[in-house]
Design brief:
The chain has 122 residues and is mostly helical. The chain is built from 5 helices and no strands.
Length: 122
């Protein structure tokens, strides 16, 4: 599974950025990853009669750190995006662009994104 993710990452990151082919490849990879994770999760879960052994629900405040982290990053990105001069206010994407200019690092970044998606999906 890891080798397939790395090979797919290498292929997807070789496509022209923001092209229709790259967009379709990323969406297809993400959809396949979610489908495989869901199938594995269903296979592992023992069959129980409906209503028996319900999964515990996380309290509402358990999501607060995630929401605050994402909101903070989004606010920072937007603040930097609209601040002038642009050279003095780099966005997150403009800081990682020099690293992602190399195909190997872009492929590894895609593999890391795919791994995170896999962990969240299962």
């Amino acid at each position: 599974m890891v080798a397939a993710g790395l090979l797919c990452g290498w292929w997807v990151t070789a496509l022209p950025p923001f092209s229709a082919g790259a967009t379709v490849a990323v969406l297809a990879f993400g959809t396949a990853e979610i489908a495989v994770a869901e199938a594995r999760r269903r296979r592992r879960r023992p069959h129980r009669p409906s209503g028996a052994g319900r999964q515990p629900v996380l309290p509402r405040f358990a999501y607060v750190p995630w929401v605050l982290s994402i909101a903070g990053l989004a606010a920072w990105e937007l603040f930097e995006l609209f601040s002038l001069p642009r050279s003095a206010h780099p966005t997150i994407s403009s800081m990682v662009d020099p690293l992602l200019a190399h195909h190997l690092l872009r492929g590894l970044a895609f593999a890391a994104w795919a791994w995170l998606g896999w962990e969240l999906a299962r």
